[in-house]
Write a structure and sequence with these properties.
single chain, about 170 residues, 6-stranded antiparallel beta barrel, 3-stranded antiparallel β-sheet, 1 helix, about 40% strand
Length: about 170
């Protein structure tokens, strides 16, 4: 959502606007951490535990599809632990939550909430051959987002171990 942005503007549902500072990005999860300066308290949703999510659990996805602010869709968790390749970075993203709650273009970055209203994921993308929703939406689990938060704050990026070995062979 913020790739190649010169200015990042955060707009709250009460109409307040804040220019955001980019703290860090992680291409491995396609997430970014932003900071805004605001007077007073800001509204927030509680973070849930994505390790407790179960297939069949009801969820809602909130986003801004095609510029339509504050859109909510409902569905269930269809599967856990999905893997896909980011269309933007070409990197593999692992451990995703699959949902049939519609995640249209523009919902990326919005929250995936459980029935208690807790954030259990961050909407990532849809898997689609046509570009429309086909009931396969993916979200980054909130526990994974929490795990990378410290690295984004300290280093502006996530530091992952890398062995540096690549094998190209077919095993029969």
């Amino acid at each position: 959502v913020i790739a190649d942005a010169k200015t990042i503007l955060v707009v709250l549902n009460d109409g307040r606007e804040f220019e955001a500072e980019l703290i860090g990005t992680d291409p491995g999860t396609d997430l970014a951490l932003l900071k805004i300066e605001a007077r007073g308290k800001l509204p927030f949703a509680a973070m849930g535990d994505s390790n407790a999510v179960e297939v069949g659990e009801w969820v809602v996805a909130i986003g801004n599809p095609r510029g339509l602010d504050w859109t909510v869709t409902a569905g269930v968790v269809s599967a856990l632990g999905r893997e896909t390749v980011s269309q933007r970075t070409g990197l593999s993203i692992r451990g995703l939550i699959q949902t049939d709650a519609t995640i249209n273009p523009g919902n990326s970055g919005g929250p995936l909430l459980n029935a208690k209203g807790e954030i259990i994921g961050i909407n990532e993308m849809i898997l689609s051959t046509s570009g429309g929703s086909q009931g396969i939406g993916l979200a980054v689990p909130i526990n994974l987002a929490k795990d990378i938060l410290d690295d984004l704050v300290k280093h502006g990026r996530v530091i992952r171990p890398w062995l540096g070995v690549e094998l190209h062979m077919e095993i029969d």
